[in-house]
Amino acid sequence: MSKLTSSSTWRELEQHKDRLSKISLSELFNNDLGLARVNDFVLPLADLTVDFSKNLIDRQVLTSLIQLANDSDLVSKISAMFNGEKINFTEDRAVLHTALRDSSSRPIMVDGVDIKPQIRAVLQRMTDLANQIRRGQLIGSTGRAIKNIINIGIGGSDLGPASAYLALKDYTDQSLTVRFVSNIDYSDLATALHNLDPAETLFIISSKTFTTDETMTNAQSAKNWLISELGEFTSDKHFIAVSSNIAAAQEFGINQANVFELWDWVGGRYSLCSAIGLSLMIAIGPDNFNAMLDGFYKVDQHFLNTPLETNVPVLLALIDIWYGNFWQAQTSAIIPYSHDLARLPAYLQQAVMESNGKSVDKTGEVVDYQTSMIVWGEPGTNAQHAFFQLIHQGTEMIPVDFIGFLRSQHKNDILHHNKLLANMIAQAEALAFGEQQDINNQDDVLSESKVFVGNKPSNIILGSQLTPGVFGQLIALYEHKIFVQGVIWQINSFDQFGVELGKKLAKGVYQEIDQKKITIAHDASTVNLIKKIISSNS
Ligand code: F6P
Questions:
Q1: How much is the pTM?
Q2: Is 156 in the pocket of ligand 1 (CB under 6 A)?
Q3: Residue nearest (by alpha carbon) to ligand 1 atom 16
Q4: Helix (H, G, I), strand (E, B), or coil: what is residue 269?
Q5: Residue range 111-155, pLDDT digits in tens
Q6: Residue 121 contacts by C-beta under 8 Å, 6 or more apart in sequence?
Q7: Tens digits of per-residue pLDDT, 299-334?
Q8: Which residue of the set 385, 411, 500, 504 is catalytic?
Q9: Are 332 and 399 in contact (CB under 8 A)?
């Protein structure tokens, strides 16, 4: 048994689980109409209000969960991250996405060097370029002003800016076209290029490593498109790189002056606040981008300085652990009641699952407990008409995060927005408290089928409005939640070796398809499939 699962705190939590299994959420609320729960289990976090009262918890459970955090020395681990210690122990790297939005004068040292001046310098260069483009002063190789920005990147080099762009589209400059290309499927690039004038188009090649096959292939095809449309063109006027691999960007033909640097202490899935956010900054403008950074910073400061008992990312992380490790929940849903947050679940899927989808702890032992839950979601109310049936009446426990905003993005909209919020509140209420049917008037099957047993947990995260600052707060909340869970599970949340094997094998298979010859030993199924593709190619 691992140290974690054999600890007295773990055993205590198992006993709490047995106790709580016999008490319903209705009963937990009925003790005092739930007033104490609202008092105890609703907390402010910058411009967010986080209501975690509809969880299968009480004070005793929370006390034990906080003890679990203390057992893993969480407070000192949080400081270690913010201070630049090399907590990404498999890659010997610091983890300093928090430095990217730290507007204080505090120096942050990595290998004896203060990294703050480098961060400020890149942010200034991003600001200058964004302003130049937004003023129509960046001129393409035929003399026309750049009006179209295409970000080419994948994973963390796409999901952050792409989902933020959608979330903040009301803040974007409508005279610019900003699109995102990630998939190696040519459809993605073709759709993005549709209707664009190449003479007015700038490609931002976003790749920390500048080796990712999807991004490099799309970048090369973008170059070919420019050549075929413009003939000779000046690469510098149509290509920008965001990367930590300056040499590879130069080899691709991008001048060093057009490379925006990224550092190895920024993980891909935590990189929105770095130059990976350049396309977003161009779209929403430097002031709004800075407001977003400020939102991140506010939550960073809360996370760093608030006692665990009222520390919102810590509490949400612990509640998730409660369900995953003690109630055997396997998945959790993120349901934004905001159509503009449609890509948020995808962004958070990478952040959560690439970070904590691990099964080996920091000592190299295979863990004997569940780590990350599977995270999924879609915006409400669409989600209600798709999969909510299962959350209400299925056999799985699926804790839900509802995310909503008090005010609409649209000045004159009260009708839609209040209906949207009413649905969110009603879903959380229905999940928690269910409904019993009057069984006297119906046959057994019908009456049983109509029972809502309730007792399904959820959090409500309510923001004031979906502004750049609030978006930043929301993402930082999840980033820190992920960190806390990694600390308690004793895993490295900052590497991602699990994605490498597929990449390596794809390279070999591609070569075989390209050369129409199988040269690697595969299983019979794989050989059969490759042969099919080869013969369809000829
Ligand atoms: O999927 C693996 C991964 O390395 C992610 O962690 C990363 O966000 C993505 O690929 C893109 O990597 P890069 O920015 O180096 O192209």
A1: 0.97
A2: yes
A3: 207
A4: helix
A5: 999 999 999 999 999 999 999 999 999 999 999 999 999 999 999
A6: none
A7: 999 999 999 999 999 999 999 999 999 999 999 999
A8: 385
A9: yes
